[in-house]
From TrEMBL:
The lineage of its organism: Bacteria, Bacillati, Cyanobacteriota, Cyanophyceae, Nodosilineales. One of its GO terms (molecular function) is alanine-glyoxylate transaminase activity. The modification N6-(pyridoxal phosphate)lysine is found at K194. Belongs to the class-V pyridoxal-phosphate-dependent aminotransferase family. It holds the Pfam family Aminotran_5. Substrate binds at R337. Its cofactor is pyridoxal 5'-phosphate. It comes from the Bacteria. This is Serine-pyruvate aminotransferase/archaeal aspartate aminotransferase. GO terms for biological process: glycine biosynthetic process, by transamination of glyoxylate. Residues 26-328 form the Aminotransferase class V domain. Keywords: Aminotransferase, Pyridoxal phosphate, Transferase. InterPro entries: Aminotrans_V_dom, Aminotrans_V_PyrdxlP_BS, PyrdxlP-dep_Trfase, PyrdxlP-dep_Trfase_major, PyrdxlP-dep_Trfase_small, SP_NH2Trfase/AEP_transaminase.
Length: 384
């Protein structure tokens, strides 16, 4: 049957129908009073979602663009930075800082393992001359399904006193509580096609007063992603450049949905779906790639040993029109990933688990009782 696709990858994520319909409206002038009102509403809801009193800046870019903006606006060539690297995106940020001439030290962990906060603490405490200007951390490492201990890492950064903490929250913002003001996070970047439930194209950056002070002396080259003009425009419910108007319509609608659901309910839903998915995978006799105590609320990575990961993805797509994500870089062909981020319901999780069981049987994986996956997921959902 056509038009029954189910997108279960960690981004882009499913888009609600009312968000799609909002995007179908005729565009209006981006300098009009009407559009300024829309921006004002969006800005207030972004502060609510980010749990901050500071303005959240919106740029026309992907999550990578938001992270680039979060790095180049507050640092200078030759600055020493620590970059946590335990997956594809941690490695990307280290590659980016090196490209901009920053003295980059990678605090590495194996793919599928969490960053060790103690390794970061030791580096920071040894920096008696306070040469480290930033610590860059991926909160939810999408490539492996690991959620790093940002709260503890941030506490060590705060004890250092000088360094900024720059956070990739692309797949954690909107899935797990990230109290920016309470923790005192300096720069937090995210992207629209994840927890925001709209298509790709918008990046978001929350910036602390400490980071804005660093902005005054930062010398890395920037123009379109210079956040100074964005800060001034945001305060006036405007934008420095032409925004994607119809994406902004969608963002307005999606943020309304999120406010109606409530932050705690959003986080609880992601927690239920995560635990239900992981319980189902274990009941189906498949190894989970990330440890239970550090599981991303956005995506669950599975490393099958009795069937090929890419064959699982192929059958799920051809037989059931369900899209799962594959492994990246060194994990290509080793794992498949089930996204449960954003506009994903309990029904979606049960549907995927049932289809996965049928797929596993077709591929010859028999070490499971009939209905074991759905039963395990249901037990989690029923008692949550």
């Amino acid at each position: 049957m056509e038009n029954k696709d189910l997108l279960m990858i960690p981004g882009p994520t499913p888009v609600p129908e009312n968000v799609l319909l909002a995007q179908a409206k005729h565009p209006i002038g981006h300098r009009s009073p009407e559009f300024s009102e829309i921006i004002g509403e969006i800005n207030e809801n972004l502060k609510w979602l980010h749990q901050t009193k500071q303005d959240v800046l919106t740029v026309t870019a992907s999550g990578t663009g938001a992270m680039e903006a979060g790095i180049i606006n507050f640092l200078s060539a030759g600055d020493r930075v620590l970059v946590g690297s335990n997956g594809k995106f941690g490695e990307r940020w280290a590659d980016m800082t090196e490209a901009f001439g920053l003295k980059t030290e990678r605090i590495a962990a194996g793919w599928g393992e969490v960053l060790d906060p103690e390794a970061i603490r030791e580096k920071l405490e040894a920096d008696t001359n306070q040469e480290i200007k930033a610590v860059i951390v991926t909160h939810s490492e999408t490539s492996t399904g690991v959620l790093n201990d940002l709260e503890t890492i941030n506490r060590h950064v705060k004890n250092h006193g000088e360094a900024l903490i720059i956070v990739d929250a692309v797949t954690s913002l909107g899935a797990v509580s990230l109290p920016i003001d309470q923790w005192g996070l300096d720069v937090v970047a995210s992207g629209s096609q994840k927890g925001y439930m709209i298509p790709p194209g918008l990046g978001f950056i929350a910036v602390s007063e400490k980071a804005w002070q660093a902005y005054e002396t930062a010398t890395l080259p920037k123009f379109y992603l210079d956040l100074g003009p964005y800060r001034k425009s945001t305060a006036k419910n405007s934008t420095p450049y032409t925004p994607p108007i119809n994406l902004m319509y969608g963002l307005q609608a999606a943020l309304k949905m999120m406010r109606n659901e409530g932050l705690e309910n959003i986080f609880a839903r992601h927690e239920r779906n995560t635990q239900a998915t992981r319980a189902a995978i274990e009941a189906l006799g498949l190894p989970l790639f990330a440890p239970n105590n550090a599981a991303s609320r956005a995506v669950t990575a599975v490393e099958p040993t009795t069937v090929e990961a890419e064959k699982v993805r192929s059958v799920m797509k051809k037989q059931f029109n369900i899209a799962l994500a594959g492994g990246q870089n060194e994990l290509k062909g080793r794992i498949f990933r089930i996204g449960h981020l954003g506009f994903v319901s309990e029904r979606d999780v049960l549907t995927v688990v049932g289809a996965l069981e049928a797929t596993l049987r077709e591929l010859g994986h028999e070490t499971m009782a009939n209905g074991a996956g759905v039963a395990a997921a249901t037990r989690v959902l029923a008692y949550s």
